[in-house]
Design brief:
The complex is a heterodimer of chains A (about 625) and B (about 350). By secondary structure, chain A is of the alpha/beta class. Chain A contains 19 helices and 23 strands. In chain B, strand 5 and strand 6 form a beta hairpin. The chains are: A alpha/beta (about 625), B alpha/beta (about 350). Chains A and B meet through strand 9, helix 7, strand 11, helix 9 and helix 10 of A and strand 2, helix 3, helix 5, helix 10 and helix 11 of B. The structure holds thiamine diphosphate, iron/sulfur cluster and magnesium ion.
Chain lengths: ~625, ~350
């Protein structure tokens, strides 16, 4: 008999539910309880592209040390509430782990495993006895298993009652009925099993002042703080909740007190072409505007992105990436739109990208993106992903400096136009400051001066149409110069030099950050040490180039099949491809620690084998 | 080819409008369209209308897609900002522009390929949204810029250059605009300035989505016998049902119209559209009346022109969204950024 797993504040638990049965709020209650006990927690929704009926899972990692990425492999505890997925759910439990199921119906003999602890609680039956109405019976079954977990894992019952009173403030009857359901599971578990089981929880202060929020909520809020007033959009998972968040916060924070009218305009457009068309029209006309989408939307937006690049119109686009190509895996995560976004549209185009790695960066990057896009007069694409956008993350509290101002970039307003000296002529594409960024004017600014024709066709420095080669090349070269200017303004990489003598390094970006500290600690235990660089934006700065130059072997860890960041680095920095080794994970689930550690070790041992082979 | 700016010399005797500007102040750069192209006449009608309305040109924003017709805005209102966007997508750019600043006048110029073929979706939706703008399609039943292929407004049974018969059904943009909820719907002919100029003036003064389908022959690719968009065909088959006069709000309305003879419709700014229907039973404020008349004339092979429908006082996009009266692009940091105190409260709600 395998010894049951023993641990305190360190486990992975997975809830198996049926989509649309109200399990989400119960599962959320569990994660919040862990958070309120002061223990770091990371919940993940694993859901299908479906509204009702198909299996869904909710995986929660609890880790005192704050390692919150996916571990990989099996889980310590399963709560199985979905008969459809029972077989898979039993199989997911690690040897020595715990399998909690609804024993109203007996567990088929064939599914029994003798290397795990099986805990049967008749949740359906308990709720049938307690509640009279069918809807309540279905919903409170979920709360009942949370109650059972409170007993089994030794979670302070009071934490739950506090959470319930906060959640249902003013609706006391709901507090009462939910508490009843909690007690139902709690009492049954206490009576029937030895509590706690080998895995248990203890209060801690490892959470500090951190918050629990999803990336899309933070991105939408960032757009409010960044001063966006116009949003055109088209619904698509996993980006929809960015606009929902923006809308919700605007309704609270952007109502003109005198008139009750709105200081923002959100329009659900007919498709993504139209969504980005709105952003381009609004930005051209001097408002801060954004849209949010995912892969299929980016494909549709490409022609317009080229126009914005060439005509030099600010665009803020939040791309919450999902599994591609085509409809791909609409409810799974990936980092596979990198090249499609960096070079979106025909002709020689390059766009500015940023890679947030946590909700705080979602907030900051989206707020700052309006300054950057306006300063640079070009599209800026924020590369989030489903893992970050749609799951709650533990992160530092959001901050704002009240003495901030918006940087609206180089704009000549009526007064400046009026003051143009005799003989001084406004030219929309004149590189006055030698940084590749020219001055623009808003429509309607001045009766006589500053009007010009914005177009996607080639033009001279005064915005007059021309297809003369010299004018065209002049303009394209200036755009390259502007791209180099961009590299100095966008978020710098986070570089960690563990030791200058290390020859090996890891390079990564976005949500891979979540597993990197733990992976590096594991590798170190095996005697492998690395410097590291988290890329936070493209185009790459000199710092990035130097870091790459300074190492013999760099493992580029990413969540796509083709090693797109590696391609981009090689392409842009002309570094030796043999020094950049891809470590890839792209099955649609967030990259686990084991993929990073395994990927690097496999590569190094293959190399070792090759060397010994050569020597013999 | 590069456009040469026109000479800015003003003849001292040129008539001036209320702003002291002449007709020439409303012109753009020299046209590069084919000599005789209908689109240049549409542009001239826009210049005339803006001049007569004494509009400050810089308060007009010109938006277009791609095509000969979409190039036309370069050749009028040189003091206005213009935006030649991408093929078929001007409506969304106009939507964004209008959201950003409700205080400007938005003039969209498009082609039949731009609006009825590649851009049919965006066209239908911008009408539905009731964007406050004037939308002109210079309709020649063909793609001028790509050398004469049939567009979606080419009539079934008509002949393209080279003799090929159009077999697909033609889209009637006027009927489409009507059914999608446009509140000002007109059709005219680039060769009939008398009719067209007042229609443009009315459209520019209309609050809401104003649509004008202007038959605008392509002399190079669609002006032959067998075409239903040629100068000859149109001259023979135009049926002006409702003529419109635009009376600006400042002028005194001297002659009160007799019932049955003319109908005065007040615009939001107090100006008046005075409509005279050739057929007394026609009610320009009724959509069903418009549909019936369009269909009846189509069956006879006639092209019905004039102001076909007008609904005054309907709400437009900004009103439907309940945005502030001030232009959104004029709001500052204080009005837009909630600040750190609010963020602290939010952090608390995320715990
Ligand atoms: C996406 C895209 N597809 C095709 C074209 C090529 N194109 C340019 S103009 C045009 C047709 C224009 O027709 P219309 O709008 O009727 O304008 P006209 O030239 O007749 O005035 C086409 C197909 C393009 N510019 N963009
Ligand atoms: S090709 Fe036709 S539409 Fe284009 S400019 Fe010439 S006449 Fe006008
Ligand atoms: Mg055409």
């Amino acid at each position: 008999m395998i010894k049951p797993i023993q641990s305190v504040n360190d486990f992975v638990i997975k809830f198996a539910n049926v989509n649309g049965t109200g399990s989400a709020s119960a599962n959320n209650l569990f994660a919040k309880a862990v958070f309120n006990m002061g223990v770091p927690v990371s919940p993940r929704n694993i859901f299908p592209s479906n509204i009702q009926g198909l299996p869904t899972w909710y995986e929660v990692r609890v880790n005192q040390d704050g390692y919150l990425g996916r571990r990989g492999g099996g889980v310590d505890i399963v709560v199985a509430m979905n008969p459809q997925s029972l077989a898979d759910d039993v199989a997911a439990v690690l040897p020595g782990g715990y399998f909690i199921y609804d024993s109203t119906n007996p567990l088929p003999e064939s599914l029994r495993r003798d290397d795990i602890q099986i805990i049967g609680i008749p949740f359906t039956e308990l709720c049938r006895q307690q509640f009279s109405n069918t809807k309540q019976r279905m919903l409170f079954k979920n709360i009942a298993y949370i109650g059972a977990l409170a007993a089994l894992l030794d979670i302070d019952f009071e934490v739950f009652t506090q959470l319930l009173s906060k959640q249902f403030k003013g609706k006391e009857h709901l507090v009462t009925s939910n508490t009843t359901a909690l007690e139902l599971g709690y009492v049954y578990a206490k009576k029937t099993f030895e509590c706690p089981i080998g895995i248990r929880m203890e209060k801690s202060d490892a959470v500090g002042d951190k918050i629990l929020v999803d990336g899309n909520t933070a991105s939408g809020l960032g757009c409010v703080y960044g001063g966006a007033t116009v949003c055109g959009w088209y619904p698509i998972t996993p980006s929809t909740s960015v606009v929902e968040s923006y809308s919700r916060f605007c309704e609270r924070m952007r109502i003109d007190p005198a008139s009750g009218k709105k200081r923002f305009g959100i329009v659900q457009m007919e498709d993504e072409l139209a969504a980005i068309g709105v952003v381009i029209g609004a930005s051209w006309n001097g408002a801060r505007a954004f849209t949010a989408t995912s892969g299929p939307g980016v494909s549709l937006m490409s022609e317009f992105l080229g126009l914005a690049y060439f005509a030099e119109i600010p665009v803020v686009l939040i791309n919450v990436q999902r599994g591609g190509p085509s409809t791909g895996m609409p409810t799974r995560t990936q980092q596979s739109d990198l090249l499609a976004c960096a070079y979106a549209s025909h002709g020689d185009t390059k766009h500015v990208l940023t890679f947030p790695a946590n909700p705080k960066e979602c907030f900051e990057f989206s707020a700052e993106s309006f300054d950057l896009a306006e300063r640079l007069q070009t599209p800026l694409i924020i590369m989030s992903d489903l893992e970050l956008g749609m799951n709650d993350w533990l992160c530092d509290p959001l901050e704002w400096k009240d003495d901030s101002q918006f940087d609206r970039g180089k704009v000549l307003h009526e007064e400046q136009l009026e003051n143009l000296k005799d003989g001084e002529r406004f030219g929309r594409y004149l590189d006055v400051d030698d940084d590749g960024i020219c001055y623009r004017t808003y429509p309607g600014a001045h009766p006589e001066k500053g009007a010009f024709f914005t177009r996607g066709t080639s033009r001279d420095r005064h915005a007059l149409y021309t297809e003369e080669g010299a004018h065209y090349v002049d303009n394209m070269e200036r755009l390259v110069k502007k791209h180099r200017t961009a590299a100095k303004l966008i978020p710098a990489p986070i570089i960690n030099i563990d030791d200058k003598r290390h020859k090996m390094a890891v390079v990564y970006y976005g949500t891979t950050d979540n597993v990197m500290a733990e992976s590096l600690a594991k590798l170190e235990k095996q005697g492998l040490k690395f410097n590291s660089m988290r890329l936070r934006s493209y185009p790459f700065s000199d710092e990035v180039a130097e870091f790459i130059e300074g190492h013999e072997r760099l493992f580029v860890v990413e969540q796509n099949r083709d090693g797109q960041m590696r391609t981009l680095l090689i392409d842009e920095l002309e570094c030796d491809p043999s020094r950049l080794v891809s470590v890839l994970h792209y099955d649609g689930m967030a990259i686990p620690v084991e993929a990073v550690v395994g990927g690097i070790i496999n590569n190094l041992s293959a190399e070792q084998n090759r060397k010994t082979g050569e020597a013999s | 080819m590069t456009c040469v700016p026109k000479s800015k010399f003003h003849h001292p005797q040129l008539p001036v409008n209320e702003l002291g500007l002449t007709y020439r102040d409303y012109e753009g750069s020299m046209s590069t369209l084919c000599a005789g192209c209908g689109h240049d006449s549409v542009g001239a009608a826009v210049v005339q209308a803006c001049f007569e309305l004494s509009l400050p040109a810089h308060r007009v924003a010109k938006l277009s897609g791609i095509g000969c017709s979409s190039k036309a805005p370069t050749y009028f209102l040189g003091k206005s900002h213009g935006f030649n966007s991408v093929h078929g997508r001007m409506p969304s750019v106009a939507t964004g522009a209008n959201l950003a600043n409700r205080e400007l006048i938005y003039l969209g110029m498009s082609g039949d390929g731009d609006s009825a073929s590649i851009g049919l979706g965006q066209f239908a939706h911008v009408v539905r949204r009731k964007l406050n703008m004037t939308y002109i399609v210079a309709n020649n039943g063909a793609y001028g810029l790509t050398k004469g292929q049939p567009s979606a407004t080419a009539d079934r049974g008509s002949l393209m250059k080279g003799g090929k018969e159009v077999t697909d059904e033609g889209i009637d943009l006027v009927s489409l605009a009507l059914s999608m909820g446009a509140t000002y719907v007109a059709r005219s002919f680039s060769g009939d300035k008398e009719e067209l100029v007042p229609l443009i003036k009315g459209a520019l003064s209309h609050k809401g989505f104003a649509f004008i389908d202007v038959m605008s022959p392509c002399v190079t690719f669609n002006n032959h016998q067998g075409s239903t968009k040629s100068y000859d065909y149109l001259r023979d088959h135009m049926e002006s049902l409702i003529s419109a006069d635009f009376i600006p709000h400042k002028s005194e309305i001297t002659v009160q119209s007799e019932p049955g003879e003319a109908q005065d419709i007040f615009m939001h700014d107090g100006s008046v559209m005075r409509l005279r229907a050739a057929d007394e039973s026609y009610d320009p404020c009724s959509r069903s009346s418009a549909f019936a008349a369009i269909e009846a004339h189509r069956e006879k092979g006639e092209v019905l022109t004039g102001l076909l429908y007008l609904e005054s006082g309907a709400s437009h996009l900004h009103e439907n969204l309940n945005t502030v009266d001030k232009a959104l692009n004029g709001l500052g940091y204080k009005e837009l950024c909630p600040g750190d105190e609010v963020l602290k409260e939010l952090n608390e709600s995320f715990r």
